[in-house]
Amino acid sequence: MALLGIKHAVTRIAGRRDHHAAAQYADPGLVRGYIAAYESGRATRYFQSRLHVVEAALRPVSGALLDVGCGPGMLVRHLLDTRPGDFRITACDRSAAMIEAVAERTEPGEVELAVARIEDMPFPEGRFDVVVAMGVLEYSAARPAVAELARVVRPGGLAVLSMLNPASPYRIVEWFLYWPLLRLLGRLERLAGVPASRRHTVPRSGIRALTAGQLRRTLRRAGFEITDVVYYDTTPLVPPLDKVLRRWRREWRGHLERTISRGARRWQGTGYLMTARRAGKRSAPALRTVSTAGAPPA
Known about the structure:
InterPro entries: Methyltransf_11, Methyltransf_Superfamily, SAM-dependent_MTases_sf. The chain has 298 residues and is an alpha/beta fold.
């Protein structure tokens, strides 16, 4: 009976996480805010640093590419503009509002679009040369999601996965101190009669981030061989100091290579990128190598 109760509790918690994750970008207004955050806002450095490392990971490859958890298509639009003809892109997201945003940012027929969860995608086995899961595993059931990525990428194909870094000082302070304090402040403001529009609040996100070791083991169990791990958006700042100081410090925009690390500063990365190859003999021709002459260093 006790075991059954634990299973029911776990199921309820997973259901709440899934609800919070799905609710975040069901509203088109929130989608527009996500797009704007890439250019201006507290999360801009994070988004730009992540895009920098993803771009570097994709530099040597081309072919059929799946961007799952594509959001409003920021990576899709970037690849169409900077690598025209190199990829046959499929964009997939569980949010119909996000897929509608991708359609608005692309030409008809330029990208294949699909509304689906990463844990259950409507694609045949081994269809893609490259799969990108950028900012989606934190909101998913990681083990079935990675197994599904292994199913749809061909043997020898590349997987590019990003993950929030739960071991970074930034995330520890944000999740276990800053956000709880803001929620407590909001409850006190409600008791004091402060209008809802003026109260402090942090919506429940459904985030469940894995450490690099946990993600590495999950990938290996699914049949992937890890090829690289790089930490991005490295910073010694923690909330809310980052919000204050970054109003004046903007030099990172011209030096995104300084926001990443594979070495001593990796513990400061608020997120990390892991690349892996699906094990097994290649069942399709080798990926065409794209020239990196003149490309900026990663």
